[in-house]
Specification:
By secondary structure, this protein is of the alpha/beta class. It has 9 helices and 10 strands. The strands form 2 sheets. The protein has a 5-stranded parallel sheet with strand order 3-2-4-1-5, with helices on both faces. A 5-stranded mixed sheet has the order 6-7-10-8-9, sandwiched between helices. The structure holds S-adenosyl-L-homocysteine. S-adenosyl-L-homocysteine binds next to α5, β8 and β10. Belongs to the precorrin methyltransferase family. It comes from Candidatus Terasakiella magnetica. Pathway: Porphyrin-containing compound metabolism; siroheme biosynthesis; precorrin-2 from uroporphyrinogen III: step 1/1; Cofactor biosynthesis; adenosylcobalamin biosynthesis; precorrin-2 from uroporphyrinogen III: step 1/1. GO terms for molecular function: uroporphyrin-III C-methyltransferase activity.
């Protein structure tokens, strides 16, 4: 029988864990995980409860933001795959401004701040202003999103290497990847932001020797109620993802572990 626990009021057990003080005039850069609020860390929950202002990525789910203290101000800001969004410099500038006003500033980012999240790029100019920054890791979409689709990123028999690759660089171009080396050394490859250059990703991997029948799985809005999964092959992925209406934010997983989803997909619903 399914059993659900609803969290009401404060989580008393948090008082047994010692968290650092969220100082005024400081910035906490915190990973919010891939979407499902249950995948939030206790650290992130603590930060949500103590921040004065929360500057959050477009990708951060409203169910997570609803855990903020009632007194906190929410400021949406950040990247959303392909659409116009705040410039990186403007985000950093805003964080500096808010900290200089003496506020406890929570910069809430999707997944993990350092996994294709430009966390360091955002933090360094803040540190340059002598403002304290604390980085709190989160569960990255490449790991939890693949799992929720029923795909383990590694398996003892299948792969000793996993590669996490961005589908485009910071200017939106095809990433500078050594496709030959990637294709030959990494049985499992997980692409973040794969949709813009999917045809190029497919053709480069085929050119580098990956076989057309290789299993491929795409998952969009993973871990949320809108999660959509499409299982296909390298040869058919461009057409099938289009037909399945897979759109950003999405992950593309290529490799033998995709076949596990037949047995494992039900373990995450
Ligand atoms: N720092 C984030 C990644 C930021 S880049 C992390 O660690 O997860 C943004 C990309 O992450 C999206 O374009 C998509 O490729 C991936 N992503 C983030 N959340 C996702 C989700 N819920 N489902 C599928 N992909 C997701």
């Amino acid at each position: 029988m399914d059993c659900f626990y609803v969290i009401t009021g404060t989580m008393d057990f948090l008082s047994h864990i010692s968290f650092p003080k969220f100082e005024k005039a400081s910035v906490w850069m915190v990973g919010a995980g891939p979407g499902d609020p249950k995948l939030l860390t206790l650290y992130a929950y603590h930060a949500l409860q103590h921040a004065d202002v929360i500057v959050h990525d477009a990708l951060v789910d409203s169910a997570i933001l609803s855990l903020a203290a009632k007194t906190a101000t929410l400021e949406p800001m950040g990247k959303r795959g392909g659409k116009a969004s705040a410039k990186q410099g403007d985000i950093t500038q805003r964080l500096i401004e808010l900290a200089q006003q003496g506020l406890k500033v929570l910069r809430l980012k999707g997944g993990d701040p350092f996994v294709f999240g430009r966390g360091a790029e955002e933090a360094l100019p803040i540190l340059d202003k002598n403002i304290n920054v604390r980085i709190v890791p989160g569960i990255s979409a490449g790991i939890a999103g693949s799992a929720y689709a029923g795909v383990p990123v590694s398996d003892g028999q299948s792969n000793q290497v996993i590669s996490f690759v961005t589908g485009h660089d910071t200017s939106g171009d095809v990433p500078a990847v050594n496709w030959q080396a990637l294709a030959q050394s990494s049985p499992v490859i997980v692409f973040y932001m794969p949709m813009k250059h999917i045809a190029k990703i497919q053709s480069e991997l085929l050119k580098a020797g990956r076989v057309p029948s290789e299993p491929v799985c795409a998952v969009s809005r993973a871990t949320t109620p809108h999660q959509l999964v499409c299982e296909t092959t390298l040869a058919n992925c461009v057409e099938d993802l289009n037909k399945a209406n897979i759109k950003a934010p999405a992950l593309l997983i290529i490799g033998p572990t995709v076949e596990f989803r037949q047995q494992l997909a039900g373990c995450f619903s």
